[in-house]
Structures are given as structure tokens and as C-alpha cells.
Amino acid sequence: MAENGLDQELAQLQQVYQVIVEFLVNYSFQLLGALLIFLLGLWLSNKAANWTSNKLRQHNIDVTLSGFVSNLIRLFIIAMVIIICLGKLGISVTPMIAAIGAASLGAGLAVQGMLSNYAAGITIIVTRPFVVGNTITVKEITGQVADIHLGMTTLTNEEGEQITIPNKHIIGEILHNSFANKLVELKLNIDFATEPNRVIPLIEEVLASFSAVDKAQPVQVGINNFTDAGLELGIRYWIPTASYYQDKYRINMAIWNVLQQANIKIASPIRTIKLLNSASEIDAVQ
């Protein structure tokens, strides 16, 4: 019994060996050709993608758009190579394409939200309402663009937080793009007796002394309003988003110091309270 079982196993191994040998004899050239075509296709796809990316960068095309186009070309060439390799092996791709199309329809209905994010991502990459490094505000969320993907856009702020926004929430919304800088708006009151032409140049000198203040955008300092506390001065300037609060606090301290040195006091509202001591005075007021 043991010898019969061993003979059967040897016979099965021999059959498997014959099938493998027959397969290699009949299809070895097809397999080798398909492998060579696939390797050549990978090399060609990388070369084409790198060439496209370099050409786009030479024409000052945005790095996000150039990366998207080069990756799209790479995927297209690889897909064509796979179809050629399957044809080389005698595998018909027509039923496979039909099956993929049917599966894609079902998957598309199940992942409509994801597809809408991808469609919005393509719109962002093509139309370029912002690029990496810009400062944008979407739905009261502000940050500096760190990366743009097909499905989402990643922002960062001065605290090092990473903010991920699905692209479908960006397209169609009101978008504020202040590029690499962010606006600082400051208001302070001075007494009506204080000459504003004396205060405004001092503040302008402080702002001019800070290299972080964007010199391409004009600094704006002037009378913003007339209030019960005095003259309200408005101060507007631009600083880098990456160090927004750090630079803002340093500039505020410098403005305070220069006003103190010039004996200029920041005014505050003054309210007069009258105390009524007698009932007759209360009745008179009523």
C-alpha cells in the first residue's frame, strides 16, 4: 500500500513537471517577450514623465500641475504596455475592459464623494487658483498650502498643525488667497489733543525697521475713526504667514515702546458717573 501511494505521488509530480516543461516550451518566447516589453515600457514611462516634467518647469509651469501631467503620462504609458503584454501572451483584453467598465460604474456610484473630490482636485490643478506656498482662507479656515493632492489639499499654520480639506469643499466656495503673506490690522486710540501727524510717522518708522514687513505692499497708517475715546488710528501691513503671530507680537511691542518714549498715551473711553444723594434729586431726574 505504501509503495502504491508513493508511485501515485511520483506520477503526479511527473505530470506537473511535464505540464511546466510543456508550458515553458510553448510559451517561453511569449513570456520573455512580454517581460522585455514590460520592462522597456516602465523605462520609457519614467523617461517620458521626467522629460515632460522638466519641459514644464523650464516654461515656469506650476510644480503641482507639472507633477500631475507627468504622472498622468506615466500611468497612460504603463496601461498601454500592460495591454500589449497581455496581447503578447494571447490574452484577450476586450472582456477584461468590459468587466472593468462595469465594475467602475458600480464603484462610481458607491464612492461619489471621493470622485467629486478627485474632480475638484483636477480643477484646482488645472485652473490653479492657488499653488503650494500660498496662504488661503476657505470657510474661515486659514493656512499655508503645503501640498495639493487629487482628493485633498493640506494646509499648515504657525503652530505646526496640519489641516486637511477635501477638495470638493474648496471648489465653489469663496476663496481668499493672500499668497505667502497675511494681513495685520491694528487699531489704537490717541487723545484728541495729540497731534496725529506726530504719531503716524513714528509708527511708520517702526514698521519700516522690520524686515518681516512686506515692502512690496504699502504700509497703511492713518485716522480710521473718531470715537468717544479719541482719534482711532488704523494700521495695516503684511507679514509672512509662517511667522504671523511671532512677528505681529514683536511689532506691537515695538510700537508700544516708541509711543512710550515719545510720551504719547493710548486713550481709553472715559465715562462720568453722577451719584444722586437726595430723594429730591432722584425725583428731579425721574
Give an account of the 3D structure.
The chain is an alpha+beta fold. It has seven helices and eight strands; from the N terminus they run ααααββββββαββαα. It has helices at residues 2-58, 63-88, 94-110, 112-127, 196-209, 244-261, 279-285; strands at 135-138, 141-148, 152-156, 162-166, 175-179, 181-190, 220-227, 230-240. The strands form two sheets. Strands 4-3-2-1-5 form a five-stranded antiparallel beta sheet. A three-stranded antiparallel beta sheet has the order 6-8-7. Strand 2 (141-148) and strand 3 form a beta hairpin. Helix 1 packs antiparallel against helix 2 and helix 5 crosses helix 6 (244-261). The longest helix is centred in the first third of the chain and has 57 residues, at 2-58. The chain starts with a helix and ends with a helix.
Key words describing this protein structure:
286 residues, 8 strands, alpha+beta, elongated, three-stranded antiparallel beta sheet
User: What fraction strand?
Assistant: 15-25%
User: Helical content, roughly?
Assistant: 40-55%
| Secondary structure: number of strands | 8
- CA(first)-CA(last) distance: 123 Å
Low-confidence stretches: none
Strand order of the largest sheet: 4-3-2-1-5
- String of helices and strands: HHHHEEEEEEHEEHH
Largest sheet: 5 strands, antiparallel
Structural class by SSE content: alpha+beta
The whole-angstrom Rg is: 36 Å
